[in-house]
Amino acid sequence: MGRLDKDKTEPSQSRLGKVVGDIGELELSSMQETAWAEVIGKMEEVYSDLIRYDVDLERKNTELEETHQFIDSVISSMSEILIVCDRNQYVEQVNKATEDLTGFSAQELVGRKLSDLVVAPDNSLFTNLCACGSGKTANYCEIRLKSKHDDAGSDPVSMNGSQRIDHQGRPVGIVIIGRPMGELRRAYQALNKAHDDLVRTQQRLLQSEKLASLGRLVAGVAHELNNPISFINGNIHSLEKYKSRLQSFFEQLDQGQDPQRLRRELKIDGILDDMDPLVDGTLEGAARVRDIVKNLRRLSFSGREMTEAFDLVQVVKTGVSWVRRSSPKPIEVHVDVPDRLEVIGHAGRIHQVVVNLVGNALDAVSETENPDVRVDLHSEGSRAVLRVSDNGHGISEENMAKIFDPFFTTKGVGEGTGLGLWISYDLVRDHDGDLRVESTPGEGTVFTMELPLAT
Predict the structure, then answer these.
(1) How many CB atoms within 10 Å of residue 391?
(2) Euclidean distance between CA atoms 217 and 227, whole angstroms
(3) Fewer CB within 10 Å, N- or C-terminus of the chain?
(4) 393 three-state secondary structure
(5) Helix-helix angle 181-254:420-430, to 10 degrees
């Protein structure tokens, strides 16, 4: 019985130990699998990071290459000469313009001392150019670079230098930029020619506007001249008849005729009484023609005309009269001026301004039912103030900023040059004056001109 129990017990213990051993092996195997899984996961993460880093590095290399290509293309396309040197003045880089000017290739220039590329390197200007590496700035100086094909060197080059610094702000060399003087001289010559052409064009425009204004005033001037000329013409005809009668009177006296009878028949006393008024009237008409011609000549002023004191009142009256008479419609202009108001300047030029302002006012009210144009002249302190107002259609807000611009006009084609107000503004400013405008659409416009009074 006991043996049987023993036999039964021993196998049970053996199986229990085997089970425990199996469980231990299973746990160890599971731990090993977990560790390997972690190692593989880490390797995959590292491999992913390496791939991502490689992609980023490739992208940055591509961007860097593109940046280098961009910089190289910009440097190569520069028309200016570019020379980059280190702090010891050895050439590190040049552009194509430098190669073309000197005839040397970039390989032949890079690594050479900057002084070896310059004709007469002991020149003080070149010394200043090299000194910019110490923080100084070398303004444009004229030097000659050595040429592979010309012993005398290249054409003179206007160059300037500036200090080159690295990403940490430390000086590492100099950058020299230059342009051949021949090209600069051609550019200056072209600029001067363009300026001269502009001045001539401006003078032509000024004269064209004056001629346009004169054309508008022809009718008014003709009317002004017609009155005194007609008066002179009538007086001359009367004097011609009187001359014939006096000639007949003296011829008959020589023939022994009765003087008293001849005097009564030929009305000699009436001729004598009328002679003085005829002569005085003729002289007055001639004086009037002379004054009109004098005012007309003022319009043909030149730049050599000297400034002088003149009566602004007379200029305003003449300008208003001429413009009003030349207007296609008989529009009344209300003029309020003092007896006399003197300013210093060119009477003809201010006359031109008055003509333009009054002419624009008359044009503005040409379609108005009850036109009202007023010209007011008075003094305010040390300034003469002229206001030309109308009750026309006014100026829109968007046009107010352009009203004094050249060639700007709201008139139809062929009705205006767009130069009158622009020229008027310049003429007033040349007299140390001011010309401004105020306008309300639908109500009217006021132009104000101010000029310094003569002291």
Answers:
(1) 19
(2) 16
(3) N
(4) coil
(5) 90
Do 296 and 190 meet the contact criterion of CB atoms below 8 Å apart? Answer: no
- pLDDT on residue 3: 47
User: Which helix (H) or strand (E) is 380 found in, with range?
Assistant: strand 373-380
* Alpha-carbon separation of residue 156 from 93, 97, 184, 192, 195 (angstroms): 21, 14, 10, 21, 26
pLDDT tens digits along 172-227:
888 888 887 776 677 788 888 888 888 888 777 766 666 665 565 565 566 567 76
Q: Specify whether the CB–CB gap between 319 and 358 falls below 8 A.
A: yes
Return the pLDDT at 413.
45
**Which pLDDT belongs to residue 302?**
47
Q: 440 - beta bridge partners?
A: 444
Q: What are phi and psi of 376, to 5 degrees?
A: -125, 130
Whole-angstrom CA distances from 162 to 89, 94, 137, 178, 180 are: 13, 15, 5, 12, 18
Which distant-in-sequence residues (6+ apart) come within 8 Å of 310 by Cβ?
A: 342, 343, 345, 347, 350
Phi-psi category of 130—alpha, beta or left, where left has phi over 0 and alpha has psi -120 to 50?
Answer: alpha
Tokens 């430098």, located at residue:
98
Instruction: Indicate the pairing of strand 333-336 with strand 373-380.
Output: parallel
Beta-carbon contacts of 434 under 8 Å, excluding residues fewer than 6 positions away, are 428, 448, 449, 450
CA 172 – CA 178 distance, rounded (Å): 20
- Return the DSSP state at 374: E
The DSSP code sequence of 126-190 is HHHHHGGGGT--EEEEEEEE--SS-TT-SS-EEEEEEEEE-TTS-EEEEEEEEEEHHHHHHHHHH
Low-confidence ranges of the chain (pLDDT < 50): 1-9, 301-303, 413-414
Distant-in-sequence, close-in-space partners of 377: CB < 8 Å, separation ≥ 6: 312, 313, 316, 336, 337, 338, 341, 384, 385, 386, 387
- What element of type H or E holds 118? strand 118-119
β partners of residue 118? 145
- Whether 356 contacts 213, CB under 8 Å: yes
Closest Cα to residue 299, out of 199, 213, 357? 213
